Amino acid sequence: SEECPGDTIVIAITSNPDEPPTPEFRADIEQFNIGVDLALLRITRAFDGRLLDRSKLALPFVGLADASSVDLDDTIFVVGYPGIGDDPVSIVQGTITAFTAEPSGGERSWLKTSASIPGTMSGGGAYNRQGELIGIPTTAPITNLTFGSNCQPIQDTNEDGSVNENGLLPSYHQVNASAAFSFNDDQFRETLIAKNLT
């Protein structure tokens, strides 16, 4: 669209935590779930457009933790990029303060945390002390924006084909009420196969 030109998904890698991530790969959307705002990306090319043999990629990965393994007052670490531009990776520490149920996800669908997470870190990862992924930080719908807030368009929320004022993320907004979507391995697999793009 005119508001958000381009249709290439770029995967940037953080090699040095003091520096912004470096674009390394291009990717395609393999599967997604709009309900939990989660997508599985498949690396297909180098950043310069060359085809890659994915079997030769030796990228690190993290394990998944079961939501039932998380308890109140457990320490968590949220990793993400707080800036919209070229900021380096950031880590925010907090504790689990509550659980919220949802019919589709069970008693621990959402985790509340004491961590004060910038809204721009939505979509990063929430990890336990063992480095296992326990959730995806996300923001609740925003209904009242204050005059003069610094808002950035982030997604096509009303599905009109434009990334515009219908999907704004105030850069000052803190995520801490229901910061991480909690999933166990089965729920995560269901999310990844909910919509198969072939």
Describe the structure.
The chain is mainly beta and about 200 residues long. It has a domain at about 65-185: Trypsin-like serine proteases (Thrombin, subunit H, Beta Barrel). Helix content is about 5%, strand content about 35%. The protein contains one helix and 13 strands, in the order βββββββββββββα. It has one helix at about 185-195; strands at about 10-15, 20-35, 40-45, 75-80, 90-100, 105-115, 115-120, 125, 135, 150-155, 170, 175, 180. The strands form four sheets. Strands 4-5-6-13-9-8 form a six-stranded antiparallel barrel. A three-stranded antiparallel sheet has the order 1-2-3, with helices on one face. A two-stranded antiparallel ribbon has the order 7-12. The radius of gyration is 17 Å and the shape is globular. The protein starts with 8 loop residues before the first strand and ends in a 5-residue tail after the last helix.
List the topology elements.
Layout: E1 9-13, E2 22-33, E3 38-46, E4 75-80, E5 90-102, E6 106-113, E7 117-118, E8 125-127, E9 133-137, E10 151-153, E11 168-170, E12 174-175, E13 180-182, H1 185-193
Antiparallel strand pairs: 1-2, 2-3, 4-5, 4-8, 5-6, 6-13, 7-12, 8-9, 9-13, 10-11
